[in-house]
């Protein structure tokens, strides 16, 4: 099922949580809403589910306007961050709940509901736990039951709110791979919310980066990481270093020296240079490069991070060096970013 | 030479560290005070109730209880509780639901209002009904025209009891529901359940022990309420006397056996309530949020 979010605005007590957000989700896609807390990603997910109503704008499921439909009518599978399993029901009853509350002929007989629950338990690799209660399961198992319960109603869309947020790192990685497998096998259109960029980039077909109630960028993991389209995305995804520069005649300058980067299409004036600390070329001499004095150095796993003081204004910038690089305190290092981007500051 | 003596100083393993434990005499004294207090103010009166009730033998006791006026008082008390408790279960759940699950203006005010019956003297609550429904009261004229009798009749007693016992269920449920939040309800709705199914299958089972606890306290109070009921009842023998009122009448008539026989029933009710309450707390303490003083 395709989902289209069209110019949606959401206010809580007149305070806007989402400004004019539009997003097309393709059928069968696994998509991540990524952003810091307060960016509106959970609000967007709850709007798609029907747990909230948009202040303005519409949400389409296929060609049908779903905005006026209640959550029951939308037929979405929602997985909550803290599972929200019914604690007084067994695992099988939890999974069968969505079928049990149906009315009339669409409600399967009890035996059929039990069979479906067992099938779904097999799918989430928890066979044989039908009669357990949620309190008798580990966090990871509870999340799997929550997913099985959401899938039991054969939802048009599967929505997951920080699905692995409450789990420890080991289980998270395991469940991440497992969710991808389930998605590939069942083909549900799936939207999940996360603040963990590693999770988003690894798991999703496309990532929606959000900040302050707006969508900053939508793209594949490669697009988001390699060609961030805003200062926010550049600094939020992965690591970045920044330097204030000036653009003149299609050349990038720091103070009174060109640094050997040409930007023929950039407008002249003040700008901010963004690059990845590890994506730099180290140079010996310096005509047309960035040079600085090592101010601090620390070892990070297999590499060394150094902070350089650049030029007379003592701007600090971080780059990554090989561990065996002889950069000690106060020595000079010259480099040029390989991949970089300019964002005008004015 | 000190070796053998040192052994007797081995620390004994108790749950509390030595630093926060009082010395043995102090502990004994504190416990003795607590037990003596309980014995004099709670246990002794209870024993006396049963002792007086049975002072002239078992046959006098059963005879006192089979007196028609006494029987009618018992019937009335049961009737009032049978009406007041279910009403307050409905009101209590609605109020708790509204307060715990929605945001609205005047919520703090409503919360305070629910506690009002606890902070107002029951006699005042009774007087309010007299002022409302009495012959000279606000609605008295209209009621008389339509031949509706509220004061000095069963409806008045039920109203007064409902008012006095209103907070028990609501106050038990509000913190419990607030703590549980909306997550389970949202999950049920997203799975296609309608409002009623969500309430019946999800919300109610989540609060059932807290609810039972509230019902227990509400019932005990509605059967034992004296002040408010006394004002609105009119003390008509065999008609509008509840058990507590009947105890007072019998006692004032120097009918000690009769008074204490009825009192022993109320005391028995209190004991049963206490036992059930303790059992509930032991078994489902975590699910009963409010341990605040009732």
UniProtKB/TrEMBL annotation, chain A:
<dbReference type="InterPro" id="IPR027417">
    <property type="entry name" value="P-loop_NTPase"/>
</dbReference>
<dbReference type="Pfam" id="PF00005">
    <property type="entry name" value="ABC_tran"/>
</dbReference>
<dbReference type="GO" id="GO:0015697">
    <property type="term" value="P:quaternary ammonium group transport"/>
</dbReference>
<dbReference type="GO" id="GO:0005524">
    <property type="term" value="F:ATP binding"/>
</dbReference>
<keyword id="KW-1278">Translocase</keyword>
<keyword id="KW-0067">ATP-binding</keyword>
<dbReference type="Pfam" id="PF12857">
    <property type="entry name" value="TOBE_3"/>
</dbReference>
<keyword id="KW-0813">Transport</keyword>
<dbReference type="InterPro" id="IPR017871">
    <property type="entry name" value="ABC_transporter-like_CS"/>
</dbReference>
<dbReference type="InterPro" id="IPR050093">
    <property type="entry name" value="ABC_SmlMolc_Importer"/>
</dbReference>
<comment type="similarity">
    <text>Belongs to the ABC transporter superfamily.</text>
</comment>
<dbReference type="InterPro" id="IPR024765">
    <property type="entry name" value="TOBE-like"/>
</dbReference>
<keyword id="KW-0764">Sulfate transport</keyword>
<keyword id="KW-1003">Cell membrane</keyword>
<dbReference type="GO" id="GO:0015419">
    <property type="term" value="F:ABC-type sulfate transporter activity"/>
</dbReference>
<dbReference type="GO" id="GO:0043190">
    <property type="term" value="C:ATP-binding cassette (ABC) transporter complex"/>
</dbReference>
<dbReference type="GO" id="GO:0016887">
    <property type="term" value="F:ATP hydrolysis activity"/>
</dbReference>
<dbReference type="InterPro" id="IPR003439">
    <property type="entry name" value="ABC_transporter-like_ATP-bd"/>
</dbReference>
<keyword id="KW-0547">Nucleotide-binding</keyword>
<keyword id="KW-0472">Membrane</keyword>
<dbReference type="InterPro" id="IPR003593">
    <property type="entry name" value="AAA+_ATPase"/>
</dbReference>
<feature type="domain" description="ABC transporter">
    <location>
        <begin position="3"/>
        <end position="237"/>
    </location>
</feature>
From TrEMBL, chain B:
<comment type="subunit">
    <text>The complex is composed of two ATP-binding proteins (CysA), two transmembrane proteins (CysT and CysW) and a solute-binding protein (CysP).</text>
</comment>
<feature type="transmembrane region" description="Helical">
    <location>
        <begin position="254"/>
        <end position="276"/>
    </location>
</feature>
<comment type="function">
    <text>Part of the ABC transporter complex CysAWTP (TC 3.A.1.6.1) involved in sulfate/thiosulfate import. Probably responsible for the translocation of the substrate across the membrane.</text>
</comment>
<protein>
    <recommendedName>
        <fullName>Sulfate transport system permease protein CysW</fullName>
    </recommendedName>
</protein>
<feature type="transmembrane region" description="Helical">
    <location>
        <begin position="28"/>
        <end position="55"/>
    </location>
</feature>
<dbReference type="GO" id="GO:0005886">
    <property type="term" value="C:plasma membrane"/>
</dbReference>
<keyword id="KW-0812">Transmembrane</keyword>
<feature type="domain" description="ABC transmembrane type-1">
    <location>
        <begin position="74"/>
        <end position="281"/>
    </location>
</feature>
<feature type="transmembrane region" description="Helical">
    <location>
        <begin position="150"/>
        <end position="170"/>
    </location>
</feature>
<keyword id="KW-1003">Cell membrane</keyword>
<dbReference type="InterPro" id="IPR011866">
    <property type="entry name" value="CysW_permease"/>
</dbReference>
<keyword id="KW-0764">Sulfate transport</keyword>
<dbReference type="InterPro" id="IPR000515">
    <property type="entry name" value="MetI-like"/>
</dbReference>
<dbReference type="Pfam" id="PF00528">
    <property type="entry name" value="BPD_transp_1"/>
</dbReference>
<feature type="transmembrane region" description="Helical">
    <location>
        <begin position="120"/>
        <end position="143"/>
    </location>
</feature>
<keyword id="KW-1133">Transmembrane helix</keyword>
<dbReference type="InterPro" id="IPR035906">
    <property type="entry name" value="MetI-like_sf"/>
</dbReference>
<dbReference type="InterPro" id="IPR005667">
    <property type="entry name" value="Sulph_transpt2"/>
</dbReference>
<keyword id="KW-0997">Cell inner membrane</keyword>
<keyword id="KW-0813">Transport</keyword>
<feature type="transmembrane region" description="Helical">
    <location>
        <begin position="76"/>
        <end position="100"/>
    </location>
</feature>
<dbReference type="GO" id="GO:0015419">
    <property type="term" value="F:ABC-type sulfate transporter activity"/>
</dbReference>
């Amino acid at each position: 099922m395709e989902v289209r979010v069209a110019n949606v605005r959401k206010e809580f007590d007149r305070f806007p949580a989402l400004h004019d957000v539009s997003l097309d989700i393709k059928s069968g896609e696994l998509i991540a809403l990524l952003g810091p807390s307060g960016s509106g990603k959970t609000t967007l997910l709850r709007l798609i589910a029907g747990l909230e109503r948009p202040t303005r704008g519409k949400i389409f499921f296929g060609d049908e306007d779903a905005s006026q439909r209640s959550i029951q009518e939308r037929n979405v599978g929602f997985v909550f961050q803290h599972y929200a399993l019914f604690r007084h029901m067994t695992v099988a009853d939890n999974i069968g709940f969505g079928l049990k509350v149906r009315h009339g002929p669409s409600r399967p007989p009890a035996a059929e509901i039990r069979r479906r629950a067992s099938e779904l338990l097999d799918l989430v690799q928890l066979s044989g736990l039908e009669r357990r209660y949620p309190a008798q399961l580990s966090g990871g198992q509870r999340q799997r039951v929550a997913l099985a319960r959401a899938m039991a109603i054969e939802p048009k869309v599967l929505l997951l709110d920080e699905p692995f947020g409450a789990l420890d790192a080991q289980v998270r990685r395991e469940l991440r791979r497992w969710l991808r497998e389930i998605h590939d096998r069942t083909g549900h259109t799936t939207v999940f919310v996360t603040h963990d960029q590693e999770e988003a980039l690894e798991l999703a077909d496309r990532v929606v980066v959000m900040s302050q109630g707006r969508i900053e960028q939508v793209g594949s993991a490669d697009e988001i990481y390699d060609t961030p389209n805003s200062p926010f995305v550049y600094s939020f995804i992965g690591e970045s270093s920044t330097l204030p520069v000036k653009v003149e005649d299609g050349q990038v300058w720091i103070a009174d020296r060109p640094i050997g980067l040409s930007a023929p299409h950039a407008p002249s004036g003040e700008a901010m240079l963004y690059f990845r600390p590890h994506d730099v070329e180290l140079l010996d001499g310096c005509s047309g490069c960035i040079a600085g004095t090592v101010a601090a150095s620390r070892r990070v796993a297999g590499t060394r991070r150094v902070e350089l003081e650049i030029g007379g204004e003592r701007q600090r910038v971080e780059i990554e060096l090989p561990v065996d690089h002889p950069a000690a305190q106060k020595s000079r290092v010259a480099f040029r970013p390989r991949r970089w981007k300019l964002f005008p500051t004015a | 030479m000190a070796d053998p003596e040192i052994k007797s100083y081995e620390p004994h393993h108790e749950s509390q560290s030595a630093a926060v434990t009082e010395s043995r005499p102090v502990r004994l004294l504190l416990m003795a005070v607590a037990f003596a207090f309980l014995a004099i103010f709670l246990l002794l009166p209870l024993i006396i109730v049963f002792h007086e009730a049975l002072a002239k033998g078992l046959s006098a006791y059963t005879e006192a209880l089979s007196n028609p006026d006494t029987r009618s008082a018992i019937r009335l008390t049961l009737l009032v509780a049978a009406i007041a408790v279910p009403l307050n279960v409905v009101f209590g759940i609605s109020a708790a639901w509204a307060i715990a699950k929605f945001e609205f203006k005047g919520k703090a005010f409503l919360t305070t209002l629910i506690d009002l019956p606890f902070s107002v003297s029951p006699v005042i609550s009774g007087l309010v009904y007299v002022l409302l429904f009495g012959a000279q009261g606000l609605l008295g004229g209209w009621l008389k025209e339509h031949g509706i009798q509220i004061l000095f009749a069963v409806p008045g007693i039920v109203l007064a009891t409902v008012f006095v016992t209103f907070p028990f269920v609501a106050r038990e449920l509000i913190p419990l529901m607030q703590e549980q939040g909306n997550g389970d309800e949202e999950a049920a709705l997203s799975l296609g359940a309608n409002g009623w199914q969500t309430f019946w299958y999800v919300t109610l089972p989540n609060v059932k022990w807290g609810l039972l606890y509230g019902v227990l306290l509400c019932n005990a109070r509605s059967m034992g309420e004296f002040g408010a009921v006394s004002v609105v009842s009119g003390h008509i023998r065999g008609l509008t006397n509840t058990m507590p009122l009947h105890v007072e009448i019998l006692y004032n008539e120097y009918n000690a056996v009769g008074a204490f026989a009825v009192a022993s029933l109320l005391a028995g009710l209190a004991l049963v309530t206490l036992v059930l309450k303790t059992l509930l707390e032991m078994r489902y303490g975590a699910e009963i949020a409010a341990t605040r003083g009732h």
